């Protein structure tokens, strides 16, 4: 038997964030905003479980300015992001709340390399006592190296809204039985994505009939749908406001369907939805949401078809 050789482990060393960004407004905020604007999902979006669109940076709110104002792509909620490169303080805690009030935001994200207990506790208390849909995240900014390796950024959420607390805020009857089933189904699907090595991204589950995922370019999204009227499941690429791109992809229909090994439903913008400019390329199968014993089969189908869409469409849409 060969002798065991232990791995050569290196020490993981924390770095001073000021060594990489000297100025919050001129360096860190633009870096974070650009990462959100990028075609691939940003680290912050993965941490929050939300896909974002930057609306404005350094937006004036009274005599101060909020670092980043963004919008949740899935539901249109406003989000304010307040950054600092030193330990949390009362001034920035107050600014977070004032900025959220000033732009009527539903989500506050506070980024700092160190959170004092009283500020973490304040966000925890606000999450516990705010209405459903108002979410607060305290995200610790970390930079690490292993030996002489390039630096790696980690955004570590140390306080975020728990799903069970949000559900506890609901009054009896707030959700129909169908909505409850949808939320439970997407929660299981999110957990499946989290547990797998997959290009799909874990996103916050909601009581609705769809679950969206990024696919590497703004204006495009991968959408999973459970239709309880027709008892069908859908996995589809959604193209927003770009009929020429749809036509170019449709011109590759034969090759794409050979790669997918299935026939797809090609819906140009005028057929996608009433008063909508979205085009869709879709796979469909039967599925009854009330049949919980089949959920695992449904979710595996969605996961595998979603991975197929990534494999077949990801590179194509980057080069259109």
Describe the model.
The radius of gyration is 22 Å and the shape is globular. The mean pLDDT is 91. It has ten helices and twelve strands. It has 320 residues and is α+β, with helices and mostly antiparallel strands.
Give the proportion of residues in helices.
25-40%
Note the main sheet. 7 strands, mixed
Overall, the morphology is globular
Q: Write the H/E string, N to C.
A: EHHEEEHEHEEHHEEEHHEHEH
End-to-end Cα distance, whole Å, is: 55 Å
Estimate the mean pLDDT confidence: 91
As an assembly, this protein is single chain
Keywords:
320 residues, alpha+beta, 7-stranded mixed beta sheet, 5-stranded antiparallel beta sheet, 10 helices, 12 strands, globular
Summarize the structure.
This protein has 320 residues and is of the alpha+beta class.
SSE layout and pairing:
Layout lengths: L11 E3 L9 H14 L5 H6 L3 E10 L2 E9 L5 E6 L6 H14 L3 E6 L4 H13 L5 E12 L5 E8 L3 H6 L8 H19 L14 E4 L6 E8 L4 E9 L2 H8 L2 H8 L4 E3 L1 H4 L5 E9 L8 H24 L2
Parallel strand pairs: 4-5, 5-6
Antiparallel strand pairs: 1-6, 2-3, 3-4, 6-7, 8-9, 9-10, 10-12, 11-12
């Amino acid at each position: 038997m060969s002798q065991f050789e232990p791995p050569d482990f290196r020490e993981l060393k924390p770095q001073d964030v000021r060594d990489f960004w000297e100025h919050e407004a001129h360096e860190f905020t633009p870096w974070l905003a650009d990462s959100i604007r990028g075609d691939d999902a940003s680290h912050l979006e993965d941490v929050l479980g939300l896909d974002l669109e930057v609306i404005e940076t350094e937006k004036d709110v009274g005599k101060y300015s909020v670092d980043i104002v963004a919008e949740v792509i899935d539901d249109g909620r406003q989000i304010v992001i307040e950054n600092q490169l030193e330990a949390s303080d009362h001034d920035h805690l107050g600014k977070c709340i004032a900025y959220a009030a000033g732009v009527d935001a539903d989500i506050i994200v506070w980024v700092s390399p160190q959170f004092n207990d009283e500020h973490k506790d304040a966000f925890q208390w606000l999450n516990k006592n705010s209405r459903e849909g108002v979410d607060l995240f305290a995200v610790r900014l970390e930079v690490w190296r292993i030996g002489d390796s390039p630096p790696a950024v980690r955004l570590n959420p140390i306080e975020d809204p728990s799903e069970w607390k949000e559900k506890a805020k609901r009054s009896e009857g707030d959700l129909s039985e169908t909505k409850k089933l949808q939320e439970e189904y997407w929660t299981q699907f999110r957990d499946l994505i989290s547990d797998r090595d997959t290009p799909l991204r874990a996103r916050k589950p909601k009581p609705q009939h769809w679950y969206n995922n990024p696919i590497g370019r703004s204006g495009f999204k991968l959408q999973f749908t459970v239709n309880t009227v027709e008892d069908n499941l859908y996995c589809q690429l959604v193209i927003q406001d770009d009929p020429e791109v749809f036509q170019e992809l449709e011109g590759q229909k034969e090759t794409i369907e050979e790669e997918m090994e299935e026939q797809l439903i090609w819906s140009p913008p005028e057929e996608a939805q009433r008063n909508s400019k979205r085009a869709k390329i879709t796979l469909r199968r039967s599925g009854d949401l009330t049949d919980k014993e089949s959920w695992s089969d449904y979710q595996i189908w969605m996961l595998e078809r979603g991975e197929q869409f990534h494999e077949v469409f990801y590179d194509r849409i980057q080069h259109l």
